[in-house]
Amino acid sequence: MSVVQNLNSSFMYMLCGSIILVVALICVLFLVRAWRAGIAIGMEKEKMRRVVVSSAAFTVLPSIGILLGVIALSGSLGVPWPWLRLSVIGALHYETQVAQAAAEASGLSALSMSQMTMGAFTTICLLMSMCIMWSLILSLIFGKAYSNRLLKVKKGSKKEGSPAGGGFGDLAMTAMFVGLISAYVGSYIGGLISGNGRFSFSGDWMPLAVAAVGALAMAVFVWLYEKKKHVWAESFSVAGSMLIAMIAAVVLKMIV
């Protein structure tokens, strides 16, 4: 049985699909309980229906980006595992980064099905799971205390007439994403620099060009949302930027 057949076997579909089914059932349970709670406190059914419809519509747009991530990772890790990761707990930027790092640590030159081995796949799955499970554990231990702290900050800001700030959490998240982007862009720039410290345009400049197109597309979506007040732009910004960047990559590859 080949690596491709193992990664896309019936057992993998059954294993990953059963977990996704449990999570889906939990979502349905919370939906039903929330609906009943709304009726119990006297909310109008028509308003609740409008909320459900609008929420479903704005959920579909961001999920396009997740679907693109599943498709991108399926080419190297099979369909079931990326489907599980990005359906339950994973994040697109996290999954791709950790999978690439684990593949390189396993001796693969690239994250691709042609080079994949069962040993490398096991390492990738283990690292992806080990790195992200701490968010669940830390939330379980410190989540309630952190929520109470946020409520206190919010109440205090209302009394003083000032908006509640995100504090260290917002700064840490911003710094993390800036660091990730800098690491990726820096590695691509490093690949274009020759041994004498000068830029060599014979290197692989495609990632930088695609990143620039994606950043420009995101800027347009932010402008539409913040300046033109188009609410849909906020929900579609990530998926739309990814789609535009992917199209740019295909077009540039065809032209060059």
List the helices and strands and how they pair.
Blueprint: H1 3-7, H2 10-40, H3 45-77, H4 80-88, H5 92-105, H6 118-160, H7 168-192, H8 206-226, H9 231-255
Helix pairs in contact: 2-4, 3-4, 3-9, 5-6, 8-9
Helix content: over 70%
Which percent range describes the beta-strand content? under 5%
Number of helices: 9
SS elements, strand count: 0
Low-confidence stretches: none
What is the H-and-E element order? HHHHHHHHH
Whole-number mean pLDDT: 83
Largest sheet: none
Alpha-beta content class? mainly alpha
- Alpha-carbon Rg, integer: 22 Å
Instruction: Estimate the global geometry from the Cα principal axes.
Output: globular
- How far apart are the first and last residues' alpha carbons, in Å? 39 Å
Give structural attributes:
256 residues, mainly alpha, 9 helices, 80% helix, 0% strand, globular
What would you say this structure looks like, in words?
With 256 residues, this protein is mostly helical. It has a domain at 1-156. The protein is built from nine helices and no strands. The longest helix is centred in the middle third of the chain and has 43 residues, at 118-160. The two termini are 39 Å apart. The mean pLDDT is 83.
Short description:
With 256 residues, the protein is mainly α. It contains 9 helices and no strands.
